[in-house]
Amino acid sequence: MRAVTWQGHRRVAVEEVPDPILKEPDDAIIRITSTGLCGSDLHLYETLGPFMTPGDVIGHEPMGIVEEVGADVATLRPGDRVVVPFQIACGHCFMCERGLPTQCETTQVREYRTGAALFGYSSMYGAVAGAQADFLRVPHAGYGPIKVPEGPPDDRFLFLSDVLPTGWQAVAYAGVGADETLLVLGLGPIGDMASRIALRQGIRVIGVDLVPERLVRASSYGVETIDLTQVDDVAEEVRSRTHGRGADAVVDAVGMEAHGSPVAEMVQRFAGMLPKSMSQPMMRRGGIDRLAALHTAIDAVRRGGTLSLAGVYGGQTDPLPMLTLFDKQVTLRMGQANVRRWVDEILPLLTDDDPLGVDTFATHHLSLEEAPRAYADFQDKADGMVKVVFQP
Ligand SMILES: NC(=O)c1ccc[n+]([C@@H]2O[C@H](COP(=O)([O-])OP(=O)(O)OC[C@H]3O[C@@H](n4cnc5c(N)ncnc54)[C@H](O)[C@@H]3O)[C@@H](O)[C@H]2O)c1
Ligand SMILES: [Zn+2]
Ligand SMILES: [Zn+2]
């Protein structure tokens, strides 16, 4: 089959690889019909190279048709139309029972002391083959895959794999009420979707980015935007719009590769250039993130407010302004989205009148062959690209 594979720093390729086969009785094989490109894939492209091996199949936003199921999968049949969460979880362990499938104790990657295995997301997350391919092997298929009805286009449901639950969890963790203000940093797919969800809940949303098309897109549906390149101090600008207090909560939808952290960017680049035997231990113990967005979040949140981090961080020695966090009495929530935890709340919004605009959310529908260009353009924010869906 064809698959998008990681080849090195800022290099992906489309290659022929062996078709996946059932390995365990609770596996399923899915024929992919749509599969997203995520900001998290850019971390593999740019900074997480030390945890990758050339040839790794990447991607973690799959949707398609069930081809084959193992003997223990009672819930799926060949021909079912499914969306598959980006994390692999068992559904019945201590963590899964508490609505935390990202921490699943059956699939945790203990060698790296990380949470649940993820599709296509480096050795740190289990080195499981990813979803930007013709076919995908889905472990623990009795729990993850979400059956969806025939009829509507794939895009109606595809974003249940990642973008929708991630945006949903970001807003839920922010814990703001209808009369409050949420600041959303980053208006890529995640910040954009979090904004749509918050606005629907009657929350006032201020959004920040530096990409003109992303700012225009967000303001077109009601986000009050701030162009990072046009203000000296984002937090000061936010305070000026919130009675001098700051936002009631902030969603950081930027993460470890924020614009505006030149020193950390140099360190990340340097680590990426070292041989894997040196760079991997260095990243595991001494890694740092580009913290510009997180610092903005800490500054811009009001006293007693909440920071909700959806953007992925991976540093182990990040310096943080603990004095400010403690003094301002900030609540901090974060993590990968617990997909199945939120699906039942989101599904009623995926209707023909499309209140979240999922049918028109993707800016690009491309073939798998176009993956190398898509990764480069998404990284550069070129060609008005916000969300890419590959259709194998
Ligand atoms: N928690 C989860 O489960 C989960 C799921 C999916 C994605 N993510 C993470 O969410 C983040 C966003 O992903 P995405 O798909 O939207 O990708 P993205 O990279 O397109 O979005 C990031 C956006 O932040 C903007 N930005 C950069 N620096 C900024 C700054 N200092 N201030 C404000 N904006 C800034 C960029 O211009 C870009 O538009 C990534 O870190 C990704 O790994 C997390
Ligand atoms: Zn993702
Ligand atoms: Zn579990």
Question: Topology of this structure?
Answer:
Blueprint: E1 2-8, E2 11-16, E3 28-37, H1 39-46, E4 62-69, E5 81-83, H2 94-97, E6 135-138, E7 146-147, H3 155-158, H4 163-174, E8 181-185, H5 189-200, E9 204-209, H6 212-220, E10 224-227, H7 234-240, E11 247-252, H8 262-273, H9 276-286, H10 292-300, E12 301-309, H11 322-327, E13 331-334, H12 339-346, E14 364-366, H13 371-380, E15 388-390
Parallel strand pairs: 8-9, 8-11, 9-10, 11-12, 12-13, 14-15
Antiparallel strand pairs: 1-2, 3-4, 3-6, 3-15, 4-5, 5-7
The structure holds nicotinamide-adenine-dinucleotide (NAD) and zinc ion (ZN) (2 copies).
One zinc ion (ZN) binds next to loops.
**Name of the top-level CATH class of the largest domain:** Alpha Beta
* Main sheet summary: 7 strands, mixed
Provide the β-strand percentage band: 15-25%
Number of domains: 2
Helix content: 25-40%
Helix-strand sequence: EEEHEEHEEHHEHEHEHEHHHEHEHEHE
CA(first)-CA(last) distance: 10 Å
Q: Which architecture of the largest domain per CATH?
A: Alpha-Beta Complex
Quick one: CATH superfamily of the largest domain?
Medium-chain alcohol dehydrogenases, catalytic domain
By CATH, the topology of the largest domain is: Quinone Oxidoreductase, Chain A, domain 1
Overall geometric form: globular
Structural class: alpha/beta
Uncertain segments are: none
Overall pLDDT, averaged? 95
Radius of gyration: 20 Å
